[in-house]
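Attaching the record inline, Q. Sequence:
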Amino acid sequence: MSKIEIIERYGNLVKQETLVTMNDKILPNTFVLEAPEPFPGYFNYYSEIPSDSKPLYIYIVLKKLYTIEEIARATQNIKKYFGTNFSAAAGTVHIYNKTHDVIRVRHLDRYDQVHDLQACYLDEGLEFKKHPGKQIEGQAVIRLKKFFMLKKIDEGVYFDMDEKDHGYFTIPHRITLKYFEDLTKRVRHNWDRSVFDAAIGHIHQNFEVLDMIRIYNPNIDRDYLMDVRKKYLERIK
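Structure, as predicted:
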């Protein structure tokens, strides 16, 4: 029996989705965004999960750019006492022609915890941007700087050990977000199993940058990931 290979890597993910301003359950006069549909390419995401049951993807907007170390240390300290094993990643959100530094938060149990978590980060020395004073709702480009724990299932093909239903495969070279969106449309229009969400990104390995695509599908397995990988690689120029 072959040994399972688990690897840890640092990298980025880039995706585009609709974000809206949160006005309740947050610290007064702070700017927080929420993704009401975090996997827009997977149309049945809420078929078994009520959309109002818990916060899914929350973006706490920061007053300034903090380093990865500052956010990681704050998160590490908060997890010692917070009670919920939330996930946090630094990143940026570009919406309404403005770019905001954010902490992306996932795996909170209830909306009340958003306020509490903000208070914890405030105690750790991080400051937040003030509420913009108007409701924001629109397409945003989200760039996340995060650490990955991956299970290798084939050369350049991985499953995420922290986020179930997420798979990754490397691609030959870097592609732009616009090209990636067009590429994804072509894959979907030419495949009868095309209900998935996708994002682009990269990981750092052996002093090199490996470009990759992230696939989300709650029914993902090895065969599905290998099939969607084939569809993309056939079309990448």
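The helical segments are 68-79, 112-123, 177-189, 222-235. The longest strand covers residues 137-154.

More tomorrow.
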